[in-house]
Amino acid sequence: MKYCRYCGNSCADTDTFCAVCGGKLTPGEENTRSQSESGNETYSNESETPKGQTFKDKVADAFTNPVDRTAEYAADDVNTNRIFAVLSYIGFLFIIPLLAVPDSKFARFHANQGLVLFIAELISSLLYLIPFIGWIAGAATGVLLTILSIVGLVNALQGNAKELPFIGKFKILN
After folding, report:
1. How many domains, the chain?
2. Same structural domain for residues 137 and 84?
3. Assigned domain for 16 exists
4. Phi, psi values for residue 68, rounded to 5°
5. Which end of the chain lies in a sparser environment, N or C, as judged by fewer CB atoms within 10 Å?
6. Do 95 and 149 belong to one domain?
7. Residue 6's domain spans which residues?
8. What are the distances in angstroms from CA 146 to CA 54, 91, 138, 156?
9. Pseudo-torsion of CA 144, 54, 40, 29, nearest 10°?
10. Rounded distance, CA 34 to CA 10, Å?
């Protein structure tokens, strides 16, 4: 029995990739599971210990494991103000939840996400001032920000308070 050095999942000896995280299992490597002094299980690879996640892993993790703050908000607040939260992701309409339902913490969370997204869109539009490379970079960031907007819109529509990947950790509104 092998254990994935990235997530600790138990894998069959014949597996080449972890079924949970997709981490590559090197043939012949012996991963071991050990107990630390605190009693928590730790996972190590006797031949090599990874220093950290690769950029690809971090990007994938940002999209698949966003910080979920849904439990911090009252269910009636979420159900009542869901439509205002959805408006937060449509350009400058992030201002509407702040004006219409200023006491809603759920709508305020999404208004903050929408404001950060709007600022990112304004900054990315400056890339178009740079010929050729700026146009390509501007188009690429425009696509990424559109995807983030859709992710936020879907989260708000479903009543979730999940931070947007990459930019969701920024807090402008309290």
Report:
1. 2
2. yes
3. yes
4. -105, 115
5. C
6. yes
7. 1-52
8. 25, 10, 12, 15
9. 140
10. 13
